[in-house]
Amino acid sequence: MSLCLLLQIIQYIGEICRYLLNQPVRESETQHCVRLAVGNGLRPTIWEDFTKRFRIKQIGEFYGATECNCSIANLDGKVGACGFNSRLLPNVYPIRLVKVNEDTMELIRDSRGLCVPCRPGEPGLLVGQINQQDPLRRFDGYVNESATHKKIAYNVLQKGDQAYLSGDVLVMDELGYMYFRDRSGDTFRWRGENVSTTEVEGMLSHILNQTDVAELQKVLPSYARPIFLRLSPQVDTTGTFKIQKTRLQREGFDPHQTSDRLYFLDAKLGKYVPLDECLYARICSGKVAL
């Protein structure tokens, strides 16, 4: 049996698909028999570019974690979706998107003390009702009891129930397809609006070869456009090529902390300008408005 016939299904994880797209085009990259790519972490902004370039007929994107009881899968190739759950029969698989305070990620509750389900198009925290008698819905927790306690909420869908808190914000459409929005803590408020860092990162990656601020104006609303840019020759990544942000967050846009090139979005000029120590001091003192 030929190798081509054997390799009909491949698996991807994390940012591997984006890394492959960034490689030079090779004639051999379409000489395969792959019909299905299964995994998680394929960004919606590169989904169609990836399938067209490498001629992958179907994507099987899924969402889940080893310990979670609310895993979902997109089995019919809906572009950008990480899973599906029936809106007609939601209790067959009792997972929900519930409203949370965007600043604190605390669950928002109604007058009865229950969580408030999200409507289609509203971002919410993914939770899964716990049933210790059902292997698909049980939650065994962690060795650390404190960590286990933080992952469980009570009186979520009905009085007396328990639910696993995924820590991730998703959005469901009218049909029941779910789309990953952000990890909790990666969404913040700016100028009265909620900004998804994952969405901004995806848009920037998509137009990375564009240098005109006008391109950002086309794809991002004013409140979501980055005020500061940092150009690094390389970044720290995890084993699945996801960016490790802790050090970047700590260093911020301080030119004293890094030798990377830094830029500031000058609203008056309508373009990014180099950020040096002098401009940094003026921003910190309030002499330059953000």
UniProtKB/TrEMBL annotation:
One of its GO terms (biological process) is long-chain fatty acid import into cell. GO terms for cellular component: endoplasmic reticulum membrane; mitochondrial inner membrane; plasma membrane. The keyword Ligase applies. InterPro entries: ANL_N_sf (IPR042099). SUPFAM superfamilies: Acetyl-CoA synthetase-like. Keywords: Ligase. GO terms for molecular function: long-chain fatty acid transmembrane transporter activity; oleoyl-CoA ligase activity. Belongs to the ATP-dependent AMP-binding enzyme family. This is Uncharacterized protein.
